[in-house]
What does this fold into?
Amino acid sequence: MRLAYVEVQKGQTRLRLGQNWTPMVAQFPNSVTHFAMGYGSAGGIGFRNPGLFLYQGLSSPRAATKVRLDLAVFRGSWTGPKAEADGRDEGEIGVPQTEVGLNISNQTQPLKWEVNLAGHYDRKRLVQGDTRSNLEGKAVQAGTKLTYGGATLQGNAYWGRAIGQSWGQLLQFGDIAGYGTWGQAGYRFGKGFSAWVMYGQDNPNDGDVLAEVPGNARLKNEIIVPMLRYDVGPLGIALEWYRANTDWRLLENGQEVY
It folds into this structure.
């Protein structure tokens, strides 16, 4: 089950309880394969989690420029070798994940625009045998989307530490800092047809990765994806060419091979 929640609303206040996208998921690249998240990360972070979500409108309902504040508290989802070795889910221990987002948008013609800012904090209570330690996860993110006629330009950039559970640091778990960014340009040719191109990268700190990740480790990933798309109602059909270039630290017989 991807998204499932109950919602109550009064005026400009909405409260959701259940599983929903977190505030870090403000912009999605246009794609039929959802390539921007996961193992080959392109700088997009955030995910769907069960929790409590508050959305508060801050501007007048009749204002052209809308301002909304998002606040979410949701279940921890950290994992890693220590959790597997000790039979404990480290993500269930500590301070729940907390995110706050600010969304500003103006959807009047001819230029439509959105700006999104978000922050993340959590604290994992790591357990290894009789040893207990805390690991804080932090992230900040900024994104925007501009639409003028048939043209669209959008993108996100983030910096974070210990947020592998939010698809950061190339899905590697540990005290690892890093940044990521993606951008996409597209144009719609009349009804149905559109063309898009995206570039993205995720670049964790090499020293942190080598210190925290045993065995094979991912040091950097870049992608470029051009796409031709045709939409028929709710159905999207596309031809995408996906190229990923990943830098690895590989081990062969205990020796490093890059």
